[in-house]
Amino acid sequence: MSKSTISTFELFKIFPDQDAARVYLEGRLWPQGTKCPCCGLGERVTARKGKPGFYLCNQCKEDFTVRTGTIFERSHVPLHKWLCAMYLLVRARKGISSMQLAKEIGITQKSAWFVLHRLRDACGDDLTKLQGVMEVDEAYFGGLEKNKHEAKKLKAGRGPAGKSGVLAMRQRGGKTVAMQIEDADQNTLHGHIFDRVEVGSAIHTDEASAYKRIGGLFFDDETVNHGNGEYVRDGVTTNGVESVSAVMKRGIIGVYHHAGKKHPGRYVDEFAFRLNDGNVERRTLDRLHSFVDGVAGKLTYKALIH
Prior knowledge:
five-stranded mixed β-sheet, 2 domains
């Protein structure tokens, strides 16, 4: 086995129980020592006697644990099972279903579904601007009209009607950014590109009219005309970003089967994270570290199903 990869058996040896997972999370989330997540201070924190992992902040008088203020808060799932879920999600090329996760870590399917959505919530806070050569493309997720029940057919013809749109941007040799979009019009696409790409970068797109006039004073734009059978021209291509969309689609179809209109953005964040910080070229534990670093903040069940 590769030295950069650890097996599930080895993971269980590293985190055999909840206490081992707690110690790891405290060291990762509080590298400078225990810090109160309520007031942000750590100078007046004391450990509760006889209750490992429980602390009192004498500044704001709040009790807290390493779960407080994170995606683990108010969850009854043991912390070592959370870490195992992270490990399984980051190693799965196309994701892992809630049914499969429930079987792997020994929780209910309902709990596994909530765990996965909380983990996806931890994947979506990277606002780094991209630069260099950027490949940009939009894709649509949703069932084919011909495969739908007659009562659910929109009868709106071919195209994106009734589907969830995703805009993906891939830096040549670098990071990938993807986001859910409501519309694929020029204002929407240009707005996202300006938000996430450094001025002066090269933008490679297909011939879609929404990308017209993206260049000018801000970007060096190049286009490949797929309609004429052109896919690569002197290094100008969108093949890289289209492979990102392909992996997402295969994951939705083959693993998750369906992503309701409430949640596509979280699935997109998951796939983008796996392509970046979860890249298979990185050591498994480094990928796990990156996952843990994003757990601050919490997603309640009420907000999830709202």
